[in-house]
Fold:
Amino acid sequence: MVKIGIATLYAQVPDKLISYGSPRLIQKYNDGVKSEAEAPGSSRESFTPLHPVFSNMEELYNRDDDSVLKNVKIEIVFDNLEETARPPSISQIECNIVAWSYRTDYPIPVSFEHDFFYTKPNDSDCIIYADDVENTKVNLLNLKELVNNYIDFLKESKTYITLNTYSYLKGLSKLGVKKDSIKEYFQTILPTTHHLILSEDNWIAHQIEKGKLRWTKEMLVPLRVVNKNNITLPPSFQSCLVGRLYCLQLVVKLKGAEEPANTLIIDVPVLIG
Structure:
C-alpha cells in the first residue's frame, strides 16, 4: 500500500437535538382517545380496549420541528504527498450514536462532560478520538486514586466530615463507566443513494506550497433515522443510575484497501431530547 496523502475529518458541533423516539410500550398503547372498533357487547360508555398505535410523544416536549437535528456539516481536508495525487473517493458515510454511561452505588454531586471521556490524561490541549476508551480508563483511575487517597487521609488524621460528604466521596470511588456504540440508527450514506453528496466533483484545491495541494470537501450529511435495532436512547433506571452523555459518531470510509488508514472517524457531542 502506497501512502498518497493525509486526510483529516472535521465536523461542526450541532446546536439542535437528536430525537430519542418513543419507548415500545408507549408506542403501542398511547391511543388517548376511544377507538371506533369496540369489543363485542360493549357500549359507548364502557371501557375501550387498547389497540396498537403510534405514539405522539414528540409533541409532549417543549420543542418544534426546527429544534430537531436533520443534518450535520462536515469537512474533509486532504494534503497530498505527491503533486499528482488526488483525494480518494468516498465509499460511504456511517452515522452512529455513542453513549457514555456512568453509574455508582452512591449519589455524587458532580456531572461529567465529554472532555472526561475524550481528553488525553495530563494533556488538556490534546484530543485523541481513536483512543477514547484508554483515555477514559486512565482518567477514571486517576480520579478514583485521588478520592481514595483523600478518604485514607481522613481516616488516618481522624478528621470528621458530614455523612453526605462521605457518601459523595464513596460514590466517586465506586464510579463505573460504560461505552455503547449504537450502529444502524441512521441511514448510511452511499453513492447509490446520495450521489451528489459523495461526488468527486466537489473537491476544492488550494496551493499550500510548491508541489503540494490541500484539497477540501464540505458536505451536509443528512440524518435519517432508521433505527434498525429498535433502540430507545434514554437508559433504563437499572442500566444508568447517574447519567449518560451522547456523541454522534461519523465514520467516513474511503475507497481502497480495507485498512484503518482509509477510515476517518470523529465523535461529535450532541443532545438527545
About this structure: Residues 25-55 have pLDDT under 50 and may be disordered. The first strand starts at residue 5 and ends at 11. Residues 132-156 form the longest helix (25 residues). Strands lie at 5-11, 17-18, 71-80, 90-103, 176-182, 204-209, 212-222, 243-254, 263-272.
